[in-house]
Amino acid sequence: MNADTADAAIRVSHVVKTYPLGAGEVVAVDHLSLDIAYGEFVAIVGRSGSGKTTLLNLLAGIDRPTSGTVHVARADLGSLSESGLATWRGHNVGLVFQFFQLLPTLTVVENVMLPMDFARKVPVADRRDRALHLLDRVGIGDQADKLPATLSGGQQQRAAIARALANDPPLLLADEPTGNLDSHTADAVLKLFADLNADGRTIVVVTHERDIRSIVGREVTLVDRRIVDDERTGASA
Ligand code: ADP
Ligand code: MG
């Protein structure tokens, strides 16, 4: 892997994250370092409480480290203000969550257009067409004008993935995106991530899926808030 920061999609260096708890503190991530190159498809695995969500939130700039540095998509996140982080995130990161987090009162296509309205990167006149194109890309073009609650779980997650792609970010971060799906639907959603990775997108997915090693190019294992294993899996990255 190229050691140049400019070529790393993600460079986490000696990061510690603690949360205050009562009179003391909880260590959520403990002296963690991790480099991910552009184009990689990486799974983060580990038991509940091992620090996976904390790590993903640090990568997304949703949370800040207590110490250490986080570089993502050519930005030193620690140097950005809150509004700078929000702008950076809107252009560089697509987020996918376990429970989809679609807005229930907006149609599917309106949900996909929302990040475009925030980032103002896609011209207003192009937003609906782009959203429809993305819904086609994830296989639910025919659901565009429905409300999220009328879709199946798998369809809602596809809508959320289309929303994550709204501003064409180089990086997709997903926290247990198949955790609320049956195994057949979960496989189809992971296949969609693999397709998006084959198109050149860098993807980091936190997952409990058993056969994830056959899909991703690399598996990083967390135990007790530290990386204990970091393996190339042999799947095409
Ligand atoms: P995972 O996603 O692997 O289940 P988390 O990153 O959510 O793990 O949590 C790692 C550790 O940090 C756990 O011990 C958890 O209880 C603690 N933790 C996470 N977020 C907070 C928070 N906001 N406040 C206090 N403790 C937290
Ligand atoms: Mg978690």
Mean pLDDT: 94
Largest sheet: 6 strands, mixed
Q: What's the count of strands?
A: 10
Number of individual domains: 1
Q: Which hetero compounds are present in the coordinates?
A: adenosine-5'-diphosphate, magnesium ion
Number of helices: 6
Terminal CA distance reads 13 Å
Helix % is 25-40%
Q: Class, according to the CATH hierarchy?
A: Alpha Beta
Instruction: Give the assembly state of these chains.
Output: single chain
Protein structure class: alpha/beta
Topology order in helix (H) and strand (E) letters? EEEHEEHEHHHEHEEE
Low-confidence stretches: none
CATH topology: Rossmann fold
At a glance:
It is built from 6 helices and 10 strands; from the N terminus they run βββαββαβαααβαβββ. By secondary structure, it is an alpha/beta fold.
Give a written overview of the molecule.
With 237 residues, the chain is α/β, with parallel strands linked by helices. It has a single domain, classed as Rossmann fold (3-Layer(aba) Sandwich). Helices cover 31% and strands 29% of the residues. It has six helices and ten strands; from the N terminus they run E-E-E-H-E-E-H-E-H-H-H-E-H-E-E-E. The protein has helices at residues 52-59, 82-92, 108-119, 124-137, 153-164, 183-198; strands at 8-21, 24-37, 41-45, 67-72, 75-76, 93-96, 171-175, 202-206, 218-223, 226-232. The strands form two sheets. Strands 6-7-8-3-9-10 form a six-stranded mixed β-sheet, with helices on both faces. The protein has a four-stranded antiparallel β-sheet with strand order 2-1-4-5, with helices on one face. Helix 3 packs across helix 4 (124-137) and helix 5 (153-164) packs parallel to helix 6. It is globular. The mean pLDDT is 94. Bound molecules: adenosine-5'-diphosphate (ADP) and magnesium ion. Residues 19, 21, 26, 28, 46, 48-54 line the site of adenosine-5'-diphosphate. This is ABC transporter ATP-binding protein.
